[in-house]
Amino acid sequence: MNGTALASQLKNIVCGSVHANEPMSKHTSFRIGGPADVLVVPRDIPDLLTLIKALSDMQTPFYVIGAGTNLLVKDEGIRGVVIKIANTISHVDRLKNGILRCGAGALLPEVCKEAAQKGLSGLEFASGIPGTVGGAVTMNAAAFGGFMADLVDAAEAITYDGHQMRLSREDLEPGTKTTRVLSEPLILVEVDFSLKEDSPEDVQELMKEYLIRRASSQPLSLPSAGCAFKNPEGQGAGRFIDAAGLKGVRVGGAQVSELHANFIVNNGGATAKDVISLMNHVQEVVYSKFKVTLEPEVRILGG
Ligand SMILES: Cc1cc2nc3c(=O)[nH]c(=O)nc-3n(C[C@H](O)[C@H](O)[C@H](O)COP(=O)(O)OP(=O)(O)OC[C@H]3O[C@@H](n4cnc5c(N)ncnc54)[C@H](O)[C@@H]3O)c2cc1C
Fold it and tell me: 1 C-alpha to center of ligand 1: Å?
């Protein structure tokens, strides 16, 4: 079934918004990516469950994304349905004992701001990570020595055949830029963070410090998907890339950032093919010089 026909069928089933042949460049921080046959933004958790069950009955493949800040979507786009959980299912509620309950689609910078205002400490390191709560916990996003999964008290997830389950922190099986949510895969819909009471001023001050450090070391004015490669055991991938003399190297519109060697930036008009060729080149040069294998951190979808 083509995108237009599939979209009109889904419009009769879900309450959220449904878009046919949607350019994924509009939904990724890289500003790269061909069209998804259909992109759906569910209205709430029951709407998401209805959608999952319908797609599973129709045997239509689907992919869940958050804010698209860790994604490279191929130029050929995505066959099937992309379910976008960002700025939807985005409630943030303070419960007892320092628990902050967040919908998976809440944006992390907003959640961090709210935690600071409520005098809850723990999330300071994450205030400049631009994705959703769902994406950050799924990827066990990390910065300044802090890891998202360490803050999780419990999480609500949905299986790909539409069953709801509750996970503890241990059930998430966190690893380096991965969790069970990614490997199984599951869909995260809600996360309870376990935070500590502190003064709002102190929490805000520490967040500000981290944001300043980030702004001076990351190319935030150009489109990217954050770090391109995972850090090999105990060492920064960027150091190897820098030491290999690769800062500033380009393929088409894609370039290894001059400021942070582990960032690949879109200098204008970059294609997914440009980025993938550049990543391959970086991996080859780093391996030939240091015998170190760099593993992609950015998730590649479609094609
Ligand atoms: C400027 C910049 C700075 C960054 N800094 C950091 C940093 O300091 N540390 C860091 O770790 N990352 C960083 N990143 C990368 C990225 O922001 C994080 O990995 C973020 O957590 C991804 O969240 P997202 O919502 O955008 O997920 P997406 O990119 O949309 O998705 C990432 C993966 O998670 C899956 N996923 C997303 N939501 C769900 C869900 N609800 N249920 C199940 N699976 C889901 C997707 O299928 C995909 O596999 C940075 C990116 C940029 C652009």
Answer: 30
**What are the pLDDT digits (tens) for 214-267?**
999 999 999 999 999 999 987 899 999 999 999 999 999 999 999 999 999 999
In tens, the pLDDT along 76-90 reads 999 999 999 999 999
How many Cβ atoms sit within 10 Å of the Cβ of residue 125?
A: 20
**Ligand 1: centre distance to CA 139 (Å):** 6
* Site residues for ligand 1, CB cut-off 6 Å: 29, 64-71, 85, 104, 129-132, 134-136, 138-139, 141-143, 181-182, 187-188, 218, 220, 224-226, 299
174 and 270 together in one domain? no
Tell me the pTM: 0.97
CB-neighbour burial class of residue 229 (10 A; exposed 0-12, middle 13-18, buried 19+) = buried
The residue contributing the CA closest to ligand 1 atom 49 is: 299
- My answer on whether 185 and 239 are in the same domain is no
Q: Which domain holds residue 180?
A: 92-203
What is the pLDDT averaged over residues 113-128? 96
Please name the residue whose Cα sits nearest to atom 46 of ligand 1.
65
Cα of 33 vs centre of ligand 1, distance in Å, is 16
Are the CB atoms for 73 and 302 separated by under 8 Å?
Answer: yes
Q: Which of 205, 199, 294, 211 is nearest to 246 (CA)?
A: 294
